[in-house]
Amino acid sequence: EIQQLIARFQSQAPQASAVAELEILVRTAVFKSANELVGWLLQQAVDRFDKAYQPKPGEIHKGRDPLGVQGIFGGFPLNRDYYYHPGQGQGHYPADNALGLEVSYTPALTKLLCLEGADEQTYLKAERHLLQTGGISVSARQIQRVIQRVGTAAQQWQERPAEPAQCERRAAPILYVSADGTGVPMLPEELAGRKGKQADGKAKTRQVYLGCVFTQHRVDEKGRPVRDWDSTTYVSSFKSIDQFGPLLRQEALRRGLACASKVVLLIDGAHGLENMGKLNFKDCIQIVDFFHALEHAGLVLVALLGKDHPDQERRRRRWAKRLLKDKVQSLIEETRQECAGKPQAPAVEEALHYFVSNVSRMQYGTFRAAGYFIGSGVVEAGCKTVIGARCKQSGMFWSEPGAENILAFRCIHSSRRLDQFWKYRLDAKGANNDCLPMAA
Fold it and tell me: What angle do CA 272, 172, 216 make, to 5 degrees?
């Protein structure tokens, strides 16, 4: 077919369709040769490894088994030794672990499947994208299965304890920690017995927490803070806020929490997040997101003036200006005086509670003068891009493991740590051939 196309190119002006056809055929031919070479090289490696492998106590050699392996260039067979341990009731293919195979996929293809499955909006789109761009044919269901197989390890890697900080290399003038929660639509069985915001009191979503850490080294010519380029890393979890807090702290420790000159916790005014900050970031500077404060200022004004009062927007702008001048306490007192003795006083006091509870964390003039960020836009954007863009598409309903595993990959990818994770994964698979794990 390639020869025929070449002859057509030489005899007449090529058409666009012929150009596209030629490229696909050349890719197929190149992939076929590359696939044969990869298959031959891996079989040679398996033969050498199996010859050198020393069975562990209790292992019985049962002969060689064939395996149809799929890589990025196509499929090929591998024959490798199989061992069985009667006492443990399980089999063992040492070469599979040595090569880093995930069932029948090579490490390179596994990494690509996980990347596509996590990044595309659906598994079906990942299937089509792989086929169109790389000529790789793997079904959407298989991509999902690979992600669920490897995703548990990805979540565990997210939750790993921090190693000792290398202060001389990681120290930053200002380290920011931010967190927020958002709902992910879940399958009905995942929501059984859970209370929610629906009219019938039931829930349609489960809360997932997203945390991020980033650094700041400078301010611009107007004194506004500038986030360090590519400094943001993420961690996610469906666990409770009490369990999520220590996970976020470990991420902050990985980023140099112990060495930073200043640590700033940027969150909204929710009581749970405030307590999380006090427990896990005891000596940090806590700042309530300025835009959440403005939203709550609007609620105060609705309670005070009514929903559609013509003066509401002007008053809201006044709140914004005065909040930026550290006047939150004055605003509280003035609002109380204005509604004193009026029917709306209880509702106003309830709306003011957000500010009364957060006076020290709303000194925005002081924070801005120090060159700090006062908005939690980084984590807010993360909730939309890391979580919402993949898990909150129309018609999607998730199991907890399904959502947790795919979000782990998205956090690792967004944190530019894919290579680190895959090294850990391959090392862990290779360790399955070690003597101590087998003898345990």
Answer: 70
Which of 327-336's residues contact partners 24+ apart within 8 Å by CB, and which partners? 328/355, 328/358, 328/359, 328/362, 328/363, 329/359, 331/355, 332/356, 332/359, 335/300, 335/304
Q: Which DSSP symbol is given to 91?
A: E
Q: Is the pTM of this model over 0.85?
A: yes
pLDDT per residue rounded down to tens, the chain (440 residues): 666 666 666 666 666 666 777 778 888 888 999 999 999 999 999 999 999 998 888 889 999 999 999 999 999 999 999 999 888 888 889 999 999 999 999 999 999 999 999 999 899 999 999 999 999 999 999 999 999 999 999 999 999 999 875 554 567 899 999 999 999 999 999 888 788 777 777 889 999 999 999 999 999 999 999 999 999 999 999 999 999 999 999 999 999 999 999 999 999 988 889 999 999 999 899 999 999 999 999 999 999 999 889 999 999 999 999 999 999 999 999 999 999 999 999 999 999 999 999 999 999 999 999 999 999 999 999 999 999 999 999 899 999 999 999 999 999 999 999 999 999 999 999 888 876 544 44
Separation between Cα atoms, residue 75 and residue 277, nearest integer Å: 51
DSSP 383: I
Q: What is the DSSP string of 218-272?
A: EE-TTS-EEEPTT--EEEEESS-HHHHHHHHHHHHHHTTTTT-SEEEEEE-S-HH
User: Which structure tokens are listed for 3?
Assistant: 């020869």
